[in-house]
Amino acid sequence: MVHGIGPACDLRFRSIIQCVNDFRSASLSLLASHYKRAQQEGKIGRVEFLPVNWHSALHGDATGVDEDIQRITLPSISRLRHFTNDTLLDLFFYNSPTYCQTIVDTVASEIDSLHTLFKKRHPDFNGAVSVVGHSLGSLILFDMLTNQKTDSDSDSEAEGIPADKPLQLSCNTLEQTLSRLGLQQYLDILHKENLDLESLALCQDSDLKDLGIPLGPRKKILNYIKRKLLLQNCKTGAERQREGLQVPPQKMPNDQEGDQCSGLSSQPSQFHRTQSVTSAVDYNYFDVGIGQVSIAYPQLAFHPQTFFAFGSPIGMFLTVRGLKHIDPSYSFPTCKSFYNIYHPYDPVAYRIEPMIVTEVDVEPMLIPHHKGRKRMHLELKDSLTRMGMDLKNNVWGSLRTAWQSFARPVAALPPVVEKETAAKRDTEEPQEVCEAESPVAIEQTEQPEIKMGMLNGGRRIDFVLQEKPIESFNEYLFAIQSHLCYWESEDTALLLLKEIYDKLGVPVEQPQ
């Protein structure tokens, strides 16, 4: 479970660990009430929820960003400015190519470390692993999962380097590179292994560790070479653009000119972009064409089963990046299920389905209450809505009948024929009223089934929580709290359990 901006996850300034503990407690309670029989029969085990913290790595001493920001921060309203620097600036850090790389690397490293440690402590575990992202954490996971590679990809593509492109760096010699980094003492070790810049760029952290190079110098070397390669590739793309080699906004399957800046993917872009009205930026050189800053996305050590997004701004960020439409055939390379879960009053949450199905206005799926029914105030609201619609239709039908009777012309016919015509008209008028009401009923009963694409295997993606009765009185008053409600929401926890256990063929039980 990956947190969003800031070190705290709720209004009580609790950490991600404390919030995940609450979510775990809600899950265990629902397991005892909704899966009691399956648990007693040994068909299922419990679901473990593990927190992923990336905020401390970004704001720690390694980056020094807090010290740099503090030097330029005004002394007035210090508490508010401290809150801004510690929380809201994470959004700007993620859109920075420098700190975005730090965030993504930290998230991937923490996820892999937790997965490795869990497998070590539970060697018999053979279950699936899913990922959860809240707020900005969901956007981080979305970009990361978009840039994952399948097992069939080559090793060079998995490292984010094109296999047919020679590696070049701005520095001419290995000595110059190490001198620039202040690591001249490790030159003899690299020379002993016959390593030059080209072969050093192919090394991983484990390779340098085997050579006896400490963690700090390893990170400096790998990060420096990675950035230099990315910068060179970006300059190459910019030169091609200046020469007039423009890539169309919507990439065709056979178009090979849209290689991304970092070379992380050669697959056709399935995100369709709107025409730009600002300065010309070739987003197709970026990773998978999603408009994110050009960084090297790490590869997870496992393939996630499902991706759950809580209060996610993914839809907004994709739109701001210039993406207008997501191809219905698109799916994550290594994750086949995706759920966008949000509270109706969450000011940060945005929908995904309208970017896939643009021609039809589709309501989101309502998440059932964990006690098995709709909340009473929502049922009352639906009943009043239906009553109002019925009353409106009845009044409209009565007015229509009265107007037709008033506007009916008087025909100069014999009395017998007039009676027959009047009787015939009386039998036809209800049919006209019924025909006037029939399109609504036909539209409701004959609405075609909507295909939501393959991002969630053809199933629905957007799921909305039911607001509480007190929240319906003033939606603005509970807006901030609604963005933080997911950690203690039993309805959200039950939806996760249903998705996980349904794949095992275990149905949910009605609570007693």
TrEMBL record:
<dbReference type="InterPro" id="IPR001660">
    <property type="entry name" value="SAM"/>
</dbReference>
<dbReference type="GO" id="GO:0004806">
    <property type="term" value="F:triacylglycerol lipase activity"/>
</dbReference>
<dbReference type="InterPro" id="IPR004177">
    <property type="entry name" value="DDHD_dom"/>
</dbReference>
<dbReference type="InterPro" id="IPR058055">
    <property type="entry name" value="PA-PLA1"/>
</dbReference>
<dbReference type="GO" id="GO:0030134">
    <property type="term" value="C:COPII-coated ER to Golgi transport vesicle"/>
</dbReference>
<dbReference type="Pfam" id="PF02862">
    <property type="entry name" value="DDHD"/>
</dbReference>
<dbReference type="Pfam" id="PF00536">
    <property type="entry name" value="SAM_1"/>
</dbReference>
<feature type="region of interest" description="Disordered">
    <location>
        <begin position="240"/>
        <end position="268"/>
    </location>
</feature>
<protein>
    <recommendedName>
        <fullName>DDHD domain-containing protein</fullName>
    </recommendedName>
</protein>
<dbReference type="GO" id="GO:0004620">
    <property type="term" value="F:phospholipase activity"/>
</dbReference>
<comment type="similarity">
    <text>Belongs to the PA-PLA1 family.</text>
</comment>
<dbReference type="GO" id="GO:0046872">
    <property type="term" value="F:metal ion binding"/>
</dbReference>
<dbReference type="InterPro" id="IPR013761">
    <property type="entry name" value="SAM/pointed_sf"/>
</dbReference>
<feature type="domain" description="DDHD">
    <location>
        <begin position="300"/>
        <end position="502"/>
    </location>
</feature>
